[in-house]
Design goal:
The chain is α/β, with parallel strands linked by helices and 359 residues long. It has a domain of 206 residues: 2-enoyl-CoA Hydratase, Chain A, domain 1, CATH 3.90.226.10. 46% of the residues lie in helices and 12% in strands. It has 9 helices and 8 strands. Strands 1, 2, 3, 4, 5, 6, 7 and 8 form an 8-stranded mixed sheet that branches. The N terminus and C terminus are likely disordered.
Length: 359
């Protein structure tokens, strides 16, 4: 083994030892949905304010659109109700200016009908004013072949009945048209007073006919007032001015005077019946006592002429099946007007009652 020293050359010089490897920087991923805020607190506050402003703007827009939609709906409803009221007004106007009936053309041959129903009294639908208006229209139409009085009434005022009876006879003579009375349920008292103006009277077998009489009714409370210790203080100018007062006693002379009035009106009624029925009437002691009879009995004693209803009379007697109703009725417009007038009158009364009393 040689002991010569080993010579080192630059080529064989030892390479420096490598340095430790530098660590490679790694990026750590944040979980999805989580973003690390790297802005300043002022920027976060600005973002929150912007979000709040956008929410308020959206809410205001929704409220504005909802308000507009509501206004449009209200406008549509107002238009609808106005149009509906217009239709109602037109219908009321048409109803008030047109009469209704089965027939459609008054110029064509037909049977004219005038109904007399309910109590015969001033201010009602069976008053002389309303009945005469319908009768004149029925007689004046060229197409009416006859006039039928359709009666269902228990009676009423002899004055109203007398006016109607006289006018029927005048119109019959003027227009030379026959008049027939058709009784439904009842034709009593003042209703029969009217019916005898007809040329013939037709009834149902079960109708109530007659009651040829006159009455005046009322109440007297004098005995009750004496028991209760109540004194009636009635002052009159004329000793008989208050003889119908129910709280005052009635003398024999006053009762006799009232009976004289009733007897006189009764005789007028009897005379009208005799003139209207003539020889057909079979007078008996009970005929003019105020009794009423069935339709069958009425035909037997001459108060009526036969059995039949409206259709029968129009078809078999008048020979004109087409029927037109001339009856004047209280239509919807007139009822509303009356109620409106009554409401105004009631309000005026209340207003006057609230005024301080004069002393």
């Amino acid at each position: 083994m040689s002991n010569d020293p080993i010579e080192t050359t630059p080529d064989s010089a030892a390479a420096p030892a490598p340095h430790p490897a530098s660590p490679t920087p790694s990026v750590e991923r944040q979980p999805t949905g989580e973003r690390q805020s790297t802005g300043s607190p002022e920027q976060a506050k600005s973002d929150t304010s912007s979000h709040k402003t956008a929410w308020e703007r959206d809410t205001l827009e929704r409220l504005a659109f909802a308000t507009l939609a509501e206004q449009r709906a209200n406008r549509r409803w107002r238009i609808f109700f106005r149009f509906a009221w217009l239709l109602v007004f037109v219908a009321l106007l048409w109803t008030g200016t047109h009469r209704t009936g089965v027939g459609s053309d008054p110029s064509q041959p037909h049977t004219a009908v005038v109904a007399i129903k309910g109590e015969i009294a001033d201010g009602g639908e069976a008053s002389a004013e309303w009945v005469l208006s319908a009768l004149r229209s029925a007689f004046e139409d060229q197409g009416s072949q006859a006039v039928v009085l359709l009666i269902n009434s228990p009676g009423g005022s002899p004055v109203q009945a007398g006016i109607i009876n006289d006018e029927i006879r005048r119109l019959k003579e003027k227009h030379s048209k026959p008049v027939y009375a058709v009784v439904e349920e009842s034709c009593a008292s003042a209703a029969y007073y009217i019916a005898v103006a007809a040329d013939n009277i037709y009834v149902d077998k079960a109708s109530i006919v007659g009651s040829i009489g006159v009455l005046m009714d009322g109440f007297g409370f004098t005995g009750l007032m004496d028991k209760l210790g109540v004194e009636r203080r009635l002052m009159t100018a004329g000793e008989n001015k208050g003889f119908l007062d129910p709280f005052s006693p009635q003398t024999k002379a006053q009762r006799a005077h009232a009976q004289t009035l009733l007897n006189q009106i009764h005789q007028q009624f009897i005379q009208v019946v005799r003139e209207g029925r003539g020889k057909r009437l079979k007078e008996t002691p009970e005929l003019f006592t105020g009794l009423f009879w069935s339709g069958q009995q009425a035909v037997e004693i001459g108060l009526a002429d036969g059995f039949g209803n409206l259709d029968y009379v129009a078809r078999e007697v008048v020979k004109a099946e087409d029927v037109i109703d001339y009856t004047r009725r209280d239509n919807v417009a007139e009822r509303l007007a009356k109620r409106f007038g009554a409401a105004i009158g009631e309000g005026a009364v209340h207003a006057l009652q609230r005024q301080p009393a004069l002393r």
